Structures are given as C-alpha cells and as structure tokens.
Amino acid sequence: MKTQILIAALFFSGLTAAQQTKDSLKIKNIEAINIKKQVFKKQSDRFIYDVASSPIAKGTNTFNLLKQTPMISSIDGKSLKIMGKSDVVIYINNKKTNMDAEALIEMLKGTPSEDIQKIEVITTPGSEFQVESNEGVINIVMKKKKNDGYNGTLKMNNEQAYYNNPSAGASFNFRKNKWSVNSNFNTGSWTDRERYTLSNGDSTFRNESFGYNSDPNKNVGGSVNIDYELNKNHSLGFTYNMRYNKSFNSILDVTNWENGALINRTVNIENAQTRNHSFNLNYEIKTDSIGSKLTSNVSYLWFNRDKMSTNESFPLNTDPKNEYSALQQSVPQIINNYAANIDYLKKTAKGNTWLMGVSYNHTNTDNDTRQDKIENGAIINDVNQTNHFIYKERILGAYITYERKLSEKFSGKVGTRYEITRSSGEILGKTSFDRNYNNLLPYLNLNYAINSDHNLTYSFSSRIRRPRFWELNPSRTYFTPNNYTQNNPFVLASKFYNQEISYMYKNAFFANLSFNYVEDASNQIPLQGSVTGPKKDANGNMVITTTKFLRYIRTNYGNNKQLGLTLGMNKSWFKEIWTTNYSVNLGYNIYSGTVSEDPTSVPVQGQTEVVEPYVINFKNFNVSGNINNNIRLSSNKDWFLGVNYYYGSKVKIESGTLGVRQSFDVSLKKIMGNWTFVAEVYDLFNQNYNSIQGIQPNGTYNNVVNFEYPRILNIGVTYNFGNQKLKKAREIKSANDAIKSRT
C-alpha cells in the first residue's frame, strides 16, 4: 500500500511539473486566495484589526485610524472610547505609553498610519495588564521592518476652529547592526474657546451665569528610544519621554444674575505650566528559541504642574451686598515616582503560555496650595483654604496567568493579580490619614471557535480604580466666588467587576454583551447649600448673612450597574472601493447612592453650613452609534473620501441628564508618492456639545451648557522620507506605567 501511495505521489508531482505553464494562472489564483488576510478577526482575548490589509489605512494618522477601528469611537477629537463607554489605555507593541492624555493624542495624530501593522482591541484585559476600573486596552502593533538605514516623517497641520491652531511634528528612526534609535518631536500652539450657560437653585432661589473661557496653549514634546542588542539573546534599552505645556493668560469671564437681577461679573486669569519627564532602563534575556524571555526594568517619573490664578468679582448694581471681591491662588503639584518590575514569559513546546511578574511603585506627591484674599489692595492669607498636602503611596503587585489551547476549538486563559497598597496623606498641621488595603483580582477568559464562521468568548475580570493624584489634591478651581470644583483627599478606591460575552460571525459581524458592577463609585457631585455667619457690611458693622453655594465635590456616592449590548459590522464592498465600519451601543444603567455632606468642609467658628442631600437613584436606557465610511475615488488608490456620523442619545449620569450629541464629519485625502494631503471638517453642523440638566427630588436643580465650538477645519500635509523598510526598535513595558496614567 505504501508503494502505491509513493507511486501516486510521484505521478501527480510529475504531472504538475509538466503542466506548470498551462496551470500557472490557476496556481496563482489559489495562492492569492490562500494568502489573503482577514482584516478583522477574533483571537483569544482580543479583537484584531489588520489595518495593513485594509484600504482605510492609507495617508492618514494613527488617531484617525483608531476612530475608524471597530468598537472604538471618538466624539470630541481628544479622547477614545471602547464600545462607547469604557475608557482606553494605549499600548504600543505591548508597552504602555508614557505620556499624559494630551501628549498621547498629539503623538497619535503625528504617527503615520502606514507604520501600523494591526490594532488589537482588548475589551477585558488580562491580569498581566496594568489597568484600572473598566478600562479597555488598545494595543497598536507597529510594522516589523528588516533593513538597516534611516527614515522619518515630517507633518504639519493647521486647524481652524474659533481660533487658528497650527502644529507640526517630526520623527526620525535609525538602525545600524545592533543599534536602533527611534525618536519623535512635536510642537503646537492652540487656543481652546468655550461658552458657558449655567443655572442652579430651587423654588425660592435662582442663580444664572453666562460667559466664556479662552485658554491659549503652547506645547513641546518628544521622546527617544535607544536599543542595543548585546547578542542574539540579550538586549539593553533606554527610553526618555518629555512634555512641556505653557498656558498663560487663560481667561474665564462670567456674568452672574440672581433671581433675574444682574449681580456681578467674575474674571479669572490663570497662568499654568506643566512639565513631564520620564526615564526607563530595561534589560531582556531570551531563555529559549520558542519565545520565552525574562524582562526587567527600572523607571523614574517626574511630573510638575504650577498654576497661579487671580479671581475678581466686580459689582454691577448698587445693592450694598454686592461688593468687589478678589482672591489669588497658587496651586503647585510635584509627583515623583520610582518603579521596578520583573516579568517572565514561558512558552512550552505544546503551545501553552505562562506569564508571571512582580512590580513595585513608590510615589510621593507634594501639593503646597496657597490662597489669599485681596481686600483694599492688601493680601490676606485665607488659612481655611491654604494647605500643604503630602501624599505617599506604595504598591506591590504580583500576577500570574496561564493560557492553554485545550482542543482545536476550545482555549482558555486564567490568571490573577494580587496588589498590596499602602498609602498615607497629611495636610500639614491639620489632619492626616492612612489607607491600607489588599486586593485579589481574578481573571478568566474562555474562547470557543465553533467553526470558521462563528466564535464565542466569555471573560471576567476584577479591578480597582485608585483616585488620580490631582483628584486628591485638596484645592479649589473657581468659576465664581460661590461656584467652584473641590478635590477630595479622602476619596476611596472603587472596586469594579466586569463580565462580557462576545460573538463574531464571518470575521465581519460582532456582538458584545457586557455587565459591570461598581462598589464605592465616585465622581464629581454638584452639592448645593448655604453658609450662614457674621460678615462686615459696607459700613464695617458685623451682620449675619446667608450665602448660597454650588460646589462640585469629587467623592464616593454608592454603587452602579451597567448592562450593555454592542452590535457592529466591519466590511468592504465592491472590491474594497467602499469600506464600512458600523456599530450601535445599547445601554441600561442603574445608579444608587446619596451624598449628604461635603467631606472636605472645615468647620469655621461662628458659621453654620447646610448642604442639600444629593440623591443618585435612577434607571436609564440609552443608545449611541457610529457610521464610518471610506470611499476610494480613483483606480490609482490616491483619492479617498471619508463620511462619518456619530449619535448619542440622552443619558443619565451622576450630575444629571446629558442631552443628545451628534457629529457629522467629512474628509478628503490625496496621496502623491511620499506626500499625503488631507482636508477634514469635524462636526459640520456644530451639534457636538454638552448640555446637562440635573433635577433633585427636593426641587433643587443644576443645569450646565458647555459649547466648545466643535466645528473644525483641518488641513494637513505629511512627507515620508528615507528607507521605509527600516526595522523598529524593541518595545518594553515600563515599570511605572500604572502611575503615569494617574497624573
């Protein structure tokens, strides 16, 4: 029998050789079918968008490419969401980015889409990821290129919104033998403009404010990554990131009415500077030939923000109660973080994978806030609002995950992360606290590939959300003298429990059913109330007065449950002339909690403070959707038209009911060799703005309309030069990744 099989094999191989010319066309067709990649697919714990195989990734930037990625959306051009709700953590080649939010968006807008191989969307991250709350992960995988040499990109943009906002960026990459150097630089000058309409009160009192904010910014940022291969198994790397932002003469100008009568005008002038420097040194050892490796790194982060402001209120009528008042603030914040971690990835010959690691973060923050009153030209320190807050935090974490393919159709991944948190805070000379807690955070992922057309996945994870460092700094940001935001050093960490069931059909249609439960949920809560106490009148006599206030206090309020269903499609039509990415998100939210006091209030002798209880108790159904279209206008693949639309229905949030939001965007791009020209209009009809109406059971209300002039015309040009097959540098996780996201 074996002889017959051998003879048959030789016969058919000879027949194939004899007919090679005759059947070459058929063979090429078969090869073309075999090597055609799936643009969008489900794999284990993530969705993979192979943008290198998609016509949409031509002549744009990475941020715009992410907006066109299934499950990802952006309505404001400044942030990204997964399935319309989950916050996003950006990884590049499995390394968490080292930048603050604004710098990260600028970097993404300056990175050419042609450098991207694929985008991985991880809706429920595993134990190995340093994420919090219900954050999802977007892992951007860069193309791996082979040759030595250099390349780079030059990019210029000009946005016309209320003001004209120019920006520019450049990247330069070099590889020679064992050395790799990757660097980028970006700079920009822009001014944000916002218009406000505020009203709050009850059946007996009504306060209204109208005004605008003009915030000029100048930004410089960049990074350099140096990687050296000691030999084929050992590599050493160094990374440096920096960003400087200057915002001087930011003006908030608001006119105030009380019960229909004109009261005063408040002008707040602010000067702020932000500096961010981070360093990372890493070392990698490959322990076998199938992908196992040991990685260690140490990191240092220095973050500094200085803010000084003057707030003045000018009376606009003859009522003696309405006097000139002024205050000035200095609110510096310094963060120092030292971190180290060791990770070990072990792969077995049978295809199983172990991941284990240990990390340590030590963070010190220093917030020396000073607030003064200005009376008759004299500066008088306000001892109640002046404070020096020191916060220290130490986090020891360890994780382990195990991934195994149980059969051709069934695979699983199980893991856990254990974190020990020790933190302490002290307002020097006033109060102090210690906050110590341990968390065991399990993770489970089960994937069932029913057949080539159907895939089903279940995921569970537990996470916590620690307060951001700026949220703990006990300082105020004034809108008017009696309307301000107040941070809270006593806010507790929140616990998140996330579950998902995902289904994909033919690598084009998907459904995701999720349920999230949050304990000790926190947010900025609008608290209304009054302060009654003695005050000097215009003649210098002490009289008893009552002053109404509105404070946005960041605090814990209770718990919430969120049930969501996302239905989507990513598909190309007419030989990839028309590429579509459509999705709709259905949500049902249940919020429950009450805030009955201001946790940051300091008792003042002779004064009585009354706070109206703020009740959060509602159930709400909401819907949002994205329609993204990319149309190839020429057979040469050098003209493209983009037509996108976003819709978000009314949705209840902690501060009230957020109104309908919409955005209709149009773009046109032209590719000419190494040059790409883009013209884009965002929110053509000016429909993307925030309108919040908050009404409490006791009749108090707080309404906010914030219009940011969202219609933007953007003109951009990009030039790529050098050897475009240059190999990229190695990417390594940074030890203080989790800390950077909280600055």
From TrEMBL:
Gene3D superfamilies, A to Z: TonB-dependent receptor, beta-barrel domain
Residue ranges constituting the Outer membrane protein beta-barrel domain according to the UniProt record: 286-719
Lineage per the UniProt record: Bacteria, Pseudomonadati, Bacteroidota, Flavobacteriia, Flavobacteriales
Keywords, in A-Z order: Cell outer membrane, Membrane, Signal, Transmembrane, Transmembrane beta strand, Transport
Source species, domain of life: Bacteria
Protein name, UniProt field: Outer membrane beta-barrel family protein
InterPro entries reported for this sequence: Beta-barrel_TonB_sf, OMP_b-brl_3, TonB-dep_rcpt-like
Coarse class of the protein's main subcellular location: membrane
Native species: Chryseobacterium pyrolae
Compartment annotation: Cell outer membrane
Membrane topology classification: Multi-pass membrane protein
